[in-house]
Structure formats: structure tokens, C-alpha cells
Amino acid sequence: MKIGVLGAGQLGRMLALAGYPLDMTFSFYDTSGAPSAGLGKIYSDPANTQAELEAFLAEVDVVTYEFEHLPLSLTQAIESKKPLHPSSESIRVCQNRAEEKKLFGELGIPTPAYRIAESAAELEAAARELGCPVVAKSNTEGYDGKGQAVLRTPEEAQSAWDSIRHPKLVVESFVNFSRELSIIAVRSVNGEIAIYPMAENNHQGGILRYSIAPAPRLDAAKETLARDYIHRLIERLGHVGVLTLELFETEDGLLANEMAPRVHNSGHWTQNGSPTSQFENHLRAIAGLPLGDCSAYRPTCMINLIGQTGKKEDILELPYTHLHLYGKEERPGRKVGHINILADSYEELAERVKACATRIPGIAPFIASINQD
Amino acid sequence: MKIGVLGAGQLGRMLALAGYPLDMTFSFYDTSGAPSAGLGKIYSDPANTQAELEAFLAEVDVVTYEFEHLPLSLTQAIESKKPLHPSSESIRVCQNRAEEKKLFGELGIPTPAYRIAESAAELEAAARELGCPVVAKSNTEGYDGKGQAVLRTPEEAQSAWDSIRHPKLVVESFVNFSRELSIIAVRSVNGEIAIYPMAENNHQGGILRYSIAPAPRLDAAKETLARDYIHRLIERLGHVGVLTLELFETEDGLLANEMAPRVHNSGHWTQNGSPTSQFENHLRAIAGLPLGDCSAYRPTCMINLIGQTGKKEDILELPYTHLHLYGKEERPGRKVGHINILADSYEELAERVKACATRIPGIAPFIASINQD
Fold it and tell me: Would you call B312 and A22 a contact, using CB atoms and an 8 Å cutoff?
């Protein structure tokens, strides 16, 4: 089976690495100017985007993507020619915070209180109604903390509006959460659904830095609830492939933050920590193959390498590290690789992660619930 | 680092899959006419082998190979231009049964009794001296049972000679072994050595069909001895990369059969059954990186898919299968993929392997020491 991927970054690369053993081949369409996947034919000429797209589509059996901020006109045009999984409907909802929140509400999935603001004045009013602090987020195109601002007072509305520079914002009550969790599910074209254990996510500078799965000290009832939420979402969307839901854990329970219709950074632990990686399961799902076992072997931590990879030798010297580099040029704030670490217990995992982090340039100390005794 | 691989079959492909996450890229030189690796640039024009070789060498930092039956003139010419790991010396010894046996003898590694025969008459004499049955094997170029014949009486010498069609044979006493074992070691350019647990190998039609690792019911003293043997070999050869030694387990102890200077079919279990696959460790070794953990997670069985892959769905339906297909055309006797299965115990492993084998076309029943109660 010939898989076409919209985008040619690390997610596309890791899809390809997982797919070749299933006798799949890969082509990438990415005219952004910086393809890095390096594992298949890349259609990337920015001067001939339409011709490149047609050649790409002629080459493949099924299309998927590594990035949901795609024009719907593009994805719908693709769907008229080749199967696209997940569909435009998943993209439409997941690329738009207001649509996402609406769907969460319809399905009875709690979220932080929010308002929509289409001007600085509306932003100020929303901040007053919700009570500061609030977080304003661009309705579309935001990721890794980009397109966001925190308002400590309603009077900061104009400067926040000016900094985000987007015609429509979603304004949310600031949630006093104890941690961020994510849950990843996968649904195949045949309707089969499988769900991974939840991960605990720790960010630095707005970018995911550590993910631990299964999330330590997680109440079983909360896990059941989160599984139920994502089950409702994936069924309602008729979603085919991996779907990721981010949640805040608060004193009042779980609140949905946002979702992504694709393999997700918080699921990279599955490459070494689960019998079936999220990448393999995404491909099985879109190819109509049976889904694989989503259980976790042992407590696993994923550490992102951001901006620079450091010295490979320093990481590989530690006998418990699994290094995944993306072949990307180093640049501040850019995800250039990750490390997976397994251990027999969370205590051992914390020790290993701390030891590994001392070898990673520019990383802040490991802060996670397993490390707060 | 740019890795060049001589050969572009499944071993080269699996090296590439293991190497991309270490930020390596791959080129292949294979003018045999059937490259299948599919993961990098392939230099394969049979009409321009020299030009292709030069372009290939200009492209890469270091050269390795997936097949040791290479002309020494070729490998020495390569060594004059780029580092070749393992070296021509490893190839020279490992591609030649007589040289191999001589080295085993020098290092005090026991082998079956043997003679060299360079004519049908010498073969007949060897058969009389050793006592039939004997196994005659072409001195070079044999693999997967090719170039071999069993003589039940000395009188069969002429027909055996005619069938093997090779100017020099190694004639061995027929060994009444209880099983074949293999051990895989890896040595880096820095001299670091790591060794995997031994595997038990079961053949069908002269081709490896099942490998189980760690080899069940293995006497610890025998494992220690085998580790010592391969340690001597890898040091003496100054070998860089993976080295595989096949051994017979007999009532009198372990007897060395043959070795291969490369990643080996009996090490494919390491892809899912060990923290570091043999492919990754081979690459770490030739790139001068620290070697990875060679331990086994749990009892693991590798099942070869030979001639045909069967239906992917049938295999993937079983939640404990890891499928590795090679993207090769199906053809009788050809290795087209393998499946790795892990389990918590050998008993569970035997059950799983038996269940899986019912879904593999053309496979004979699972016969292994864990299945003989």
C-alpha cells in the first residue's frame, strides 16, 4: 500500500519508519520549504504546488497528514480523488478551537468556561465576565503555545489582541490544574477502536518537554472517564486514525483542553514503551488492518530535544536511553528529537530521567508528579 | 553520518530503519538486479558497476554490508577509499569454511571433525576417514543450505561432488546435535564489546524457520563458554560490527558450525525482544557510538516467512505479533518477512507461536525444545 503524507517533518518520518515493515511505501507532499522526513519521495516544489499535488496524488493509494492546520479547500479537493484519513471533518473541527469546544459541549465533555472574542473590546468583556486571569488563544493555527496570551487584568485586552494578531480568539478561564494529561485513541476504517494509557505532560516554554506514561498516580475512575470522552469523540467524528485529546486534571475533575487529529508528541513513548507504536496503529487504522496492542510495557518517559540535540554519545552512553533524532537542522525552539526511557518503577524512572536530563543542553529540571515527594 | 551498504536486501533495509533515528542516512550498492531495501539511494545499474561504485563511495562516510560473499578485490579496493566495517579480513575468514575452521582451531574452539576435499576422490577418502554419514559443503558461497550434500556412504562421493559443483569442499562428520544455537556479539571501533543472549534455531528445508531467544533450558556454563568463544573470535579478527557464531549443542558440549560477519537472521528477535536491536548496535559499532543494552526483555520467538507472506490481517489479528515485511516479491524459498512474538513464559510463547503458525502458509509445525514435553 502506498501512503501519501501531507507534510514531511518528523511525524511523517516516524510514520514511514513504522510503515515500511508493514510493506507500505511513502510519499510526502510538503511545499513549505523544509522537508525533513528523508524516507520516500517528497513533492516539495513551492513554484509548482498544484502540479506537485497532482503528481503526489497519482502516486498514492491513501492520504494522511502530520499537521491539521491545512486549508479545508485543499483537503476536500484531495478527498474527491483519494481516501483521506482522518477526514476533512476531523480537520475542520480540530483546527478550530471554537468548533472543538462546541463539540466537547455537545458530547458532555467538560471544558474550562470560555467566550469567543472577535475584537479587543470583546476580549476585554470576556475577561471581565470570566474573571481574570484568562487565556486568549487564536481560534485557528495555534500550536506549541504560539498564538496565545495570558491576561492578568481586563485592561491587558488591547495589548493581548495586538500580540496574537488573529481575527477570532477563544478566551478561557485560567484553569488551576495540577497537571496536563493526554489520551490517544485510534479507530480503523472498520470501526475498531483501541486506546493507549494516558500520559502526563510537562511543558517548558510552552513546548512539551516530558511525557510520562502510564500517567503516574492516576485515579482509575478518571482514566475510565477520559477513555469514555475520547470514545465519544472518535465515534462522533467518524474519525479514522489516531486522535489525541489533551485534558487538565483539576480538583473538580478532568477538563478537556484541545485535541489533535493525528499522531501526537505525547504518544512518542509508545515507540519503545508499548507493543504497538501510535505510528504503526495509525497506519493499521487507515489501511484497514487489525489494530495492535496499546498496553504499556513498563513506566516510560519521553523527553523532547528542543533546539539542539546535544552529543549523541552522551545520551547513548546511558544504557536505558532510546534516541530518536529527526534529521532536522538545529534552531531555537525547534523539536529536533526525543529520548524514550523505560524503567521497572516510577522511582527508577525518575532517577533515570534526572540523570539523562543532565546531558541535555538547555533543559530545565525534571518536574513531574513522580518527582514531587 | 552517511552509511553505505553493500547489498540492498532486507538486512540493509532493517539497518536503515534502525539508523534513521540515529540521524544516519543510507545509500546502497547492489548491482545484482533485485534491490529491495527501498530506503535510500540505490546504486544498481548492472551496466555501469564501476561508475556506480565510485558514485556510491563518493556519497558515504563509512561502508558496511549485508552479505559476506563479496570478492576480496572489491572489498580491499573499497577499504583504500573509505572505512569498511567489518573489514576485509573478517570477510576473508567468514566467507571461507576452511579458513573459518582453521581459526576456530587456533582459538581452541571445538568443531566437528573435518577434511578438505578438492576432487570427488578426495571427498570419497574423507568420507571413509571420518565415517559416514558426512556433510560436504562448498568452501565458499554457501548459505541457507545451498552448496551442501549429505553422504550416507563413501560411494555417494561422485554424485555429491557433481551436485555441489565447487572446486573445494569442507567435509564434516555428521554431528548428532540436539539443537543449533547461535550467539551474536558486537564490537565497536572503540573496542567495546556487547553480547546478546543465545538463540535456539530451528530450520525447515535448510532455511531458518524459528529462532527462540534467550535459548530455553540452556545450561549457564554453556552460555558462558559460547560468550567466551565469540569474544575470542571478535577480538582476534579485530572485527567491528556484529559477528554471529552458529553452534551445535551435542552430548559432548558445544561445537562451532560457522560464523557470519554481519547482522543475522537469528538476531531478528532483538528488534522487539531487546532494548537495542542487532541493527542499531551494528550501526552504533561502526559509527563509534556507545553500544546499547543487549539483554532480552522476555522470551521471544522469531518466525520466518518464506516464499509467501500470507495475509497481513491474519497475522496482525493476533495481539502479540510484530510483523516485519521486506517488500520483496514472493518466490519459493525466498525470505519475505518475519514475525516476532514475545511472551511472559516459554509455555505461553509456545502457545502463541503455535497459534500464529496456523496462519502462515506452507510452514511445518513448530518444533523446538520448549515444545517437546
Answer: yes
For B292, name the nearest residue in chain A, comparing CA atoms only: A319
pLDDT tens profile A78-107: 999 999 999 999 999 999 999 999 999 999
- Chain B, nearest residue to A16 by Cα: B17
Cis before B261 (ω within 30):
no
| A22 to B317: CB separation less than 8 angstroms, yes or no | no
Q: Which of B201, B249, B242 is nearest to B226 (CA)?
A: B249
- Local confidence pLDDT in tens for the 373 residues of chain B: 999 999 999 999 999 999 999 999 999 999 777 767 778 889 988 888 899 999 999 999 999 999 998 999 999 999 999 999 999 999 999 999 999 999 999 999 999 999 999 999 999 999 999 999 999 999 988 666 678 999 999 999 999 999 999 999 999 998 889 999 999 999 999 999 999 999 999 999 889 999 999 999 999 999 999 999 999 999 999 999 999 999 999 998 999 999 999 999 999 999 999 999 999 999 999 999 999 999 999 999 999 999 999 999 999 999 999 999 999 999 999 999 999 999 999 999 999 999 999 999 889 877 777 765 4
How many CB pairs below 8 Å do chains A and B form together?
A: 75
Note which residues in 19-58 of chain A have CB less than 8 A from chain B.
20-23, 25, 38-39
Q: What is the C-alpha to C-alpha distance for residues B17 and A14, in angstroms, rounded to an integer?
A: 10
Chain A residue with minimum CA distance to B287: A313
Interface check A343 vs B, CB under 8 A: no
Interface touch A38/B17, C-beta < 8 Å: no
Q: Which domains does chain A have, with CATH numbers?
A: 2-84 (3.40.50.20), 113-173 (3.30.1490.20), 179-371 (3.30.470.20)
**Exposed e or buried b per residue across A86-113, where buried means at least 16 C-beta atoms within 10 angstroms of its C-beta:** bbbbbbbbbbbbeebbebbeeeebbbbe
Residue B38: its chain A contacts at CB < 8 A? 20, 25
How far A321 CA sits from the closest chain B CA (Å)?
A: 8
Does any CB of chain A come closer than 8 Å to the CB of residue B94? no
**Identity of the residue in A272, A290, A313 whose CB atom sits nearest the CB atom of B290:** A313
ipTM for the predicted complex comes to 0.92
Cβ separation B39–A22 shorter than 8 A? no
| Residues A195-211: tens digit of each pLDDT | 999 999 999 988 999 99
SS3 content of chain A, % helix, strand, coil (to 5): 35, 25, 40
Cα–Cα distance for residue pair A21/A280, rounded to 1 Å: 9
| Cell numbers that stand for B128 in this block | 571413509
Q: Which of A316, A325, A335 to mutate to test the interface with B (most CBs of B within 10 A)?
A: A316
| Percentage of chain A lying above the pLDDT 90 cut | 87
CB contact under 8 A, B21 and A323: yes
Q: With an 8 Å Cβ cutoff, are B17 and A13 in contact?
A: no
Cα–Cα–Cα angle for A276, B197, B220, rounded to 5 degrees: 140
Please indicate whether, in this complex, the C-beta atoms of B25 and A17 are within 8 angstroms of each other.
no
User: A323 — contact with chain B (CB < 8 Å)?
Assistant: yes
- Chosen from A3, A13, A22 to mutate, greatest number of chain B CBs within 10 A: A22
In 3D space, the residue among A253, A267, A252, A201 whose CA is nearest the CA of residue A224 turns out to be A253
What is the band of A369 on the pLDDT scale with cuts at 50, 70, 90? confident
CB neighbours of B124 closer than 8 A, spacing ≥ 6?
B154, B155, B157, B158
- d(CA B207, CA B363) in angstroms, rounded, equals 11
First to last CA, chain A: 50
Other beta carbons within 10 Å of B147: 19
pTM: 0.94
| Cα distance between residue B368 and residue A137, in whole Å | 61
